[in-house]
Amino acid sequence: MMQLQELEFPYAFRKARTISLLKAGGIPTMSKLFAVTGQNNARNSGKRAVDTEILIREVQHNSRLSSRYQTAVARMNYLHSRYRQAGKILDEDLLHTLGSSIVEIFRIFEDEEWRPLSDVEKCAVGVFHMALGQDMEIPFKCLLSSSAGWKDGEHFAAELRDWTLRYEANVALPTEANDRYVRVYVDAVFPSLTPRLKILLRKIIGFELDNVMRDSLGIESTGPMLAFVLSGFKTLRRLALRYFSLPRPAFLASKALAKTPNPDTGLYNLTHFSAEPWYTRPSWWTTHGLHAQMIWVLGGKLPESASSKFMSQGYDLATIGPQPQEGKGMEAMAATISGLEGQDLTSCPFKSFKS
């Protein structure tokens, strides 16, 4: 998984992560929860999106045996716990979020990458997501083979993908909360864009969604002309990568996370930022580089513009999350980490299902 994410297909995995997080807002129970928790507004949405992205990056880019993976899982479990206990987050919703990642990874490879995933690579995707689901205490009872078990990771991934698509078809319906979710997390990302450019952005995003999720999120259909242009770009990219690009060397690996903490603060800084530069350390590259200038042109903020507001000192995995939850849940997290450390994490997760 690490080689796929950092050397061969960083774009595909980064895009799959973004689209799968967006699709959570198309499930009415999830979008309603975002609204009632106070995170679904222009003031809080940027930090919430970045915090969620960080936790997912930490589990995707670190070994299951590492303290960073285990702390990220423990933090997610704590932040979800009271809503799960109150019945505001359903087990099916968490399983859908887990499955959406597989849906998008497989879709992007099929539609726009220069080669498909091999069976072994699909197996790796399945093994990773099964392990993550177990660590997050997500029941798999909705899946057809939950009793008999799965023969390998590819079998698990295919079954979870199919269940996720069926779940979306059954429960994803347009609601006011869904519409507000899109207005906050799409329309308000670059507030200086004109109404026409915002509609264009929505249509480009809509091109990445199927009819069910596009309708549920209230995003406009792409239209034949724009769809033709976007398909052309994808085709050109695929051909360029396949026939004109060399393999990425290890020293150019795409790192989604800082390997070591900031020596001045002991916290971790983000290496990539979008419209709001949360946890990004100001530097020449983050304020004057090409990526930074594109963000600025689109109306986003740069690290130096409000570094204290955006916590440029970095993030602490043990306390990350909404402001009311910062620093809370230490005992529950310690218990989760202790449980993860006590598991046999080195054996095949499917060995108990094999005869």
Automatic annotation (TrEMBL):
Listed InterPro entries? MPAB
Among the GO molecular function terms of this UniProt record, one is: oxidoreductase activity
Q: What is this protein called?
A: Mycophenolic acid synthesis protein B
Q: Which organism is it from?
A: Fusarium denticulatum
